[in-house]
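Changelog note: in this version the structure field was regenerated for every chain. One regenerated record is shown below for reference.
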Amino acid sequence: MKIAVVGAGAMGAIFGARFAQGGHETVLVDVAQSLVDTYNRDGVRIVHAEEETTTRVPATTDPASVGPVDAVVFFTKCYHTASAAQLARPLVGPDTVVASLQNGWGNGDVLAETFAAEQLVVGVTYNGGTVLEPGRVAHPGVGPTTIGPFADASTAAVERLAQALRDGGLEADIADPIRPEIWKKLILNAATLPTAALAGMNAGALTAHPEMHELVSEAAREAVGVARALGYDVDAQERVDYIHTLLERAGPTKGSMLQDFEAGRRTEIDVINGAVVRAADEHGIPVPLNRAFVALVKGWEWMRGLA
């Protein structure tokens, strides 16, 4: 396949390198010229465990120079999805698979404003990445990726993208319907990202500290209640156990929101805990922890002129 990865930060770099290693013609697309220049000069450098690999993946700020591809995979921050979709239009032909593996709830709906719904594939990944320096990324958290059709995308298209992930050595599954799986990941993010960011804790510390361990668990249970009100069959104890197992395994990994805090960037709170709160309000469900996390993180953003 010919694959374009839009958004060449930590996750885009990891997946772009894996697609290329799997034998697919891959290009990274990003608006930051300096980052693009770094990739083109030095390659994509990924650190996993004690090993560092360098993969040559061409990068560009000009999608028109690439033209239509077989698949476009979005890894931009949620608040850049709409503008990234417009930027990516030259990459998308009538048979192109357009996929989102971004954090949060609603990215597929945003992409559907630009692209045909039947071309869209959405999903979640439990891989984690941290930018060590421009062009060099740590990949400490390795986990499954689950994708499925947003609307009426063909099974063959979903399977082709899943196979491309597997070709790069990544675990990939298909789920239809996919929305319950997105909510399961949303529950994880809602419970762990703001807690870690506000406390300045890495994944391992978040689950090791008794009071924070319980706070994460309670926030997850709140979000599970909302998911169940939406009709998704999500088991609260399974989610809580999964979250703490994942945190323990991730150890020193920093969550994406903590990375945003440390870099002084706007966060994705609106599509994570904000999505939980909006859905809870629609169903009359109290979610005081998730509501507090939204207020705290939005307050942090406001004080820094990011809101």
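Spot check on this record: The longest helix spans residues 179-199. Residues 180-302 form a domain with the N-(1-d-carboxylethyl)-l-norvaline Dehydrogenase; domain 2 fold (CATH 1.10.1040.10).
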